[in-house]
Structures are given as C-alpha cells and as structure tokens.
Amino acid sequence: MLDEASPSVLLLDEDIAGDEVATFLAECRAVAPDVRIVVLAADVSPLTVGVLVGAGASEVVPKSASVADVGTAIRSTGSAPGAALRASAGGWSRPAADRPGSGDPAIDLMIATLSTREREVLRLMAGGSSNPAIAAELGLSVNTVRKHVEHVLVKLGVHSKLEAAAFAARHGLVPAAGGTARPF
C-alpha cells in the first residue's frame, strides 16, 4: 500500500508499530526508499533515537512536542528530498551533513538529540552560569531551567552540571579560552 500511495512523508506513531518499530521502518524503507519517515516517540533517549534513525526514520519527534512542532518536522522533512537524516528531541537539528561531527557517531547522536533550548542551557551552564542566571538570561523560570538541565544530563549520559560542562568543552561545543566553539 505504501508503494502505491507514494507519499513524500509518513508520520508514524511508534506505539502503533509496537515493539517491532525498527523492523517496520526497515520494511517501509525497502518498499518506498524515497519516503521521509517522521516518528513520534515517547522515548527520545540517544539509544532509542539511534535505533530509529538507523532503521530508517528521517526525524524522531517526542510525543510531547506541540502540534506546531510536529507540523514543522513534517514540512521540513518533506521539503528536503535527499537531505541527511536528522534526529531531534524537542528541537529540530540541522541535517547531519551541515553539522560538523566529532568523528564518533555515538557522541554526534547525543549532541543531535539536544533541543535548541537545551543547547542554549548547556552553553550557559558550561560558562559557569547558575540556574537562576540561566533563567534570567533566557527569560525562563528556574524550574524550567532545572528541567532543561536534567534533560541535558540524561541525553549526554552525565551525572552533574560539571560533567556536562566538561563534555561540552571536550567536544568543542563551547569555546575554549580565546577560541571558538563548533556549531551544533
């Protein structure tokens, strides 16, 4: 049916595909290799996103995303034939071909799963800003900043703000003294 309909974008809820979502994605790719597949996922951990992208998802969008964000993902995925695969979690990352890589796919995937807001929080956190200072800078509540910090820690697989700052520095996400950061 997928090959007959010839859609440019397929929106897939991972719950509908069940435990075999990776198999289903691979089958979709085999039948319709040019279709862009946007997956709505409850779990947007780096491991899950990696499995989904590896199986053929063009974009992974958290189920908690707004309708507008899902629409943006569908439009941007559908209007970019041939674009590199993108993985995101709350924010929409640039195609991998446009984003400098670390050379380590696992690290690149961790970085790709950070939303735009989480990236801003990481940069400020790595610069030594406290949660209240980050909240003031970004116009957010301290509780919202705490949630973003928590998400950054989980997505980067670290246990503290200090470890997150070290990760950012080690992978060039924040400028070294007198240097520049790579875009991410």
Can you give a write-up of this model?
With 184 residues, the chain is mainly alpha-helical. It has 2 domains: 2-109, Response regulator (Rossmann fold, 3-Layer(aba) Sandwich), CATH 3.40.50; 115-170, Orthogonal Bundle (Arc Repressor Mutant, subunit A). 51% of the residues lie in helices and 8% in strands. The chain is built from 10 helices and 3 strands; from the N terminus they run αβααβαβαααααα. The protein has helices at 2-5, 14-17, 21-31, 46-55, 67-78, 105-112, 116-126, 131-138, 142-156, 161-170, and strands at 9-13, 36-41, 59-62. It has a 3-stranded parallel β-sheet, with helices on both faces. The chain is elongated and about 55 Å long. The relative contact order is 0.10. Residues 80-100 and 177-184 have low confidence and may be disordered.
Question: Key terms for this structure?
Answer:
184 residues, mainly alpha, Rossmann fold, Arc Repressor Mutant, subunit A, 3-stranded parallel sheet, elongated
Order of helices and strands: HEHHEHEHHHHHH
DSSP strand (E) fraction? 5-15%
Unreliable stretches covering 5 or more consecutive residues: 80-100, 177-184
Helix proportion of residues, in percent? 40-55%
At CATH's second level, what is the architecture of the largest domain?
3-Layer(aba) Sandwich
Measured distance between first and last alpha carbons: 38 Å
Q: For the residues shown, what is the average pLDDT?
A: 75
CATH class descriptor of the largest domain: Alpha Beta
> Any idea what the CATH superfamily of the largest domain is called?
Response regulator
Basic shape: elongated
Counted beta strands = 3
State the domain count. 2
What is the tally of helical segments? 10
Q: SS-based structural class?
A: mainly alpha
The Cα radius of gyration reads 17 Å
Q: How is the biggest beta sheet arranged?
A: 3 strands, parallel
